Amino acid sequence: MKRATKILLGAAVVVVAVGGAAMAMNGSRDDGEQRLPAVEVTRGHIVDKALAVGTIEPRVEISVKSQFSGVIKRQFAEVGEYVQAGTALLEIQPNPTPQELVDAERRIEMRELELKNLQAEFERQRQLFEKQLISAQEYERAERTYEESRLQLQIAREQLALLREGRVSTDKGNFETVVRAPVSGYILDRMVEVGDPVVPLTSYQEGTVLMTMANMDDLIFRGTVDEIDVGRLQEGMPAEIKVGALPHARVTGRLAKIWLKARKEENSTVFPVEIEILEAMEHPADDPEAEPRPVVLRAGYSANTEIIIEQRENVLLIPERVIEFRGDTATVRVRLPDNTTEERVIQTGLSDAINIEVVSGLQEGEFVAEKPPREIE
Q1: How many CB atoms lie within 10 A of CB 94?
Q2: 323: part of which helix (H) or strand (E)?
Q3: Are 221 and 54 in contact (CB under 8 A)?
């Protein structure tokens, strides 16, 4: 009897010990959850955006070239200067080879001989026409051939004058080897100096680029967007451009063009985009309360652009880090008034990769516990 009593008492002690251990474990977990920091469910503004990396550039940049060969003789305009269309930029001194001069002189001699023969023939045809021995059509043909030969001789002489002197006067105007601005705008760069050789622009060669010009009042952002984001973009979306050299500037724009073909950049696939710049304003750094003023943008500025895909106002927000995703289900641990926590399934909406919209499952003012740190095994 005493032996049986001892066994029962021992079993009871074991049960009590196990139960106490379980309670101790549950209590530490609750205490741990209570000790974890929590974040409040608030209302706010959230924006989903795509990042584009690129530069500020003129919409159209013009390369200035010459139709004459030679060397640069004089410069009339400097880089950064604004010039009107037709303003003289450079003068080119013709530098013909001896063979080119000889060929030009020989062409004149041949044209003179040809004109002399045709003049005699035309005089003979005129006399025959006056005697009514040839038709009017034959006389007109002889006259036309003579006039064409006279014009060819004039052209040959003008070409020789251009080769020798770099300028020539004709009944159609003055022609000279002075390169003039094709449009009004700023000179962005000059690629040649006095004495540099110039290859002319022809139908079979590109020619030497002498200068580049652009209208700096018509600037755009050219950059690239990662292939992950490009499928969500549409032309016309608003954009905010951040220029590295102008930290206090606010530059706004509009997505104007998305390329159809991707390209590879450093082992990643990107799509080129163009963003039209709508406004560029700056708050003075020394007076933040002052009215914003227009800011000068320069070609070549590096910039990052945030293209706004979607944005929502006055929605419930929580940090995305507090959510536990299991497949398509999103759950959080909500701290209750009695300092306990419960797991709750929520429906999420728009995300900016930091905060996320809560469509249902939470109320404003509730607190969501941070996820406990994971132990490294």
Answers
A1: 19
A2: none
A3: yes
Please say whether the dihedral angle defined by the alpha carbons of residues 149, 155, 159 and 161, taken in this order, is positive or negative: positive
| Domain covering 49-58+216-312 in this structure, CATH number | 2.40.30.170
pLDDT in tens, 29-86: 445 445 668 999 999 999 999 999 999 999 999 999 988 788 898 999 999 999 999 9
CA-nearest of 309, 273, 298 to 186 is: 298
Closest CA to 305 of 240, 254, 376, 349: 240
| 332 phi/psi in degrees, rounded to 5 | -135, 165
Looking at 3.90.950.20, 3.30.420.270, 3.30.1440.10, 2.40.50.100, the CATH number of the domain 62-94+177-215 comes to 2.40.50.100
Name the strand (E) or helix (H) holding 13.
helix 2-35
Q: Note the pTM of the prediction, 2 decimals.
A: 0.66
Q: How many residues does the chain have?
A: 377
Tokens of 364: 């404003």
Per-domain residue ranges of the chain: 49-58+216-312, 62-94+177-215, 95-173
CB 227 within 8 A of CB 262: yes
| Of the candidates 182, 207, 211, 187, the residue with the CA atom closest to the CA atom of residue 197 | 207
